[in-house]
């Protein structure tokens, strides 16, 4: 099937695209919803916004068209279910973005969030699109290992969990973080794929990037909470470029 992939720039949406291709589908375009240009990170229940500065480079690396729109709504309802359109909800931004294009299916990188999965499913049902969610409810330890072994080069771009220190762990690759994440999962019960909001990632290279990879030239560490137990911080990408692999 011809597939539009919902991307955040992170590992999950990246790896689900890889799985779509492995199952014989063709990624024909990418879709992304981003915050207002004056906002680095949006407090959204649906969308990852950190790292949105490099989404254009992501599409260029894959040599695919990119459909983008600004997130104008917010979470008007936070119920797990989403059975009908709600005016002003951020879910409707996704509906408006996808309804403009002729496609057959949508690639979705959700793992365990029923909140996100149900909302994407609602949008796709209304547009008569098939949802392709190959990593849905996968074992997270196995999934993280697969991502690394599939050469998904992604770095931590946000941390927000006990045991993760922004100044120490931001910018580290999944391969570098794997033993630390496994240890924290055993010690504190964190989700090793970050499904509990423990961290977010940014993909710099993968098998779907045709000839170039993303290089971060200049980043700034932003600390949004200096909590002594679980500080929160993210990387703001100020300058980046593509270079040949």
From TrEMBL:
The keyword RNA-binding does not apply. One of its GO terms (molecular function) is ATP binding. Keywords: ATP-binding, Ligase, Nucleotide-binding. Residues 1-224 form the Diphthamide synthase domain. It catalyses: diphthine-[translation elongation factor 2] + NH4(+) + ATP = diphthamide-[translation elongation factor 2] + AMP + diphosphate + H(+). GO terms for biological process: protein histidyl modification to diphthamide. Belongs to the Diphthine--ammonia ligase family. This is Diphthine--ammonia ligase.
């Amino acid at each position: 099937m011809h597939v539009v992939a919902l991307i955040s720039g992170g590992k999950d949406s990246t790896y689900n695209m890889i799985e779509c291709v492995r199952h014989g589908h063709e990624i024909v375009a990418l879709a992304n919803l981003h915050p207002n240009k004056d906002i680095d990170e949006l407090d959204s229940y649906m969308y990852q916004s950190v790292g949105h500065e490099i989404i254009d480079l992501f599409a260029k690396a894959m040599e695919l068209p990119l459909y983008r729109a600004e997130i104008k709504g917010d979470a008007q309802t936070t119920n797990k279910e989403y059975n009908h359109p709600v005016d002003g909800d951020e879910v409707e931004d996704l509906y408006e973005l996808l309804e403009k294009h002729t496609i057959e299916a949508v690639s979705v990188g959700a793992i365990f969030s029923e909140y996100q999965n149900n909302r994407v499913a609602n949008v796709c049902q209304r547009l008569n699109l098939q949802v392709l969610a190959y990593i849905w409810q996968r074992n997270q330890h196995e999934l993280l290992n697969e991502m690394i072994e599939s050469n998904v080069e992604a770095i931590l771009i946000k941390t927000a969990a006990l045991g993760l220190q922004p100044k120490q762990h931001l910018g580290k690759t999944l391969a570098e973080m794997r033993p630390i994440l496994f240890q924290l999962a055993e010690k504190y019960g964190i989700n090793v794929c970050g499904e509990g909001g423990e961290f977010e990632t940014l993909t710099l290279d993968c098998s779907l990037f045709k000839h170039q990879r993303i290089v971060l030239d200049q980043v700034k560490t932003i600390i949004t909470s200096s909590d002594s137990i679980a500080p929160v911080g993210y990387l703001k990408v100020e300058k980046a470029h593509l270079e040949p692999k």
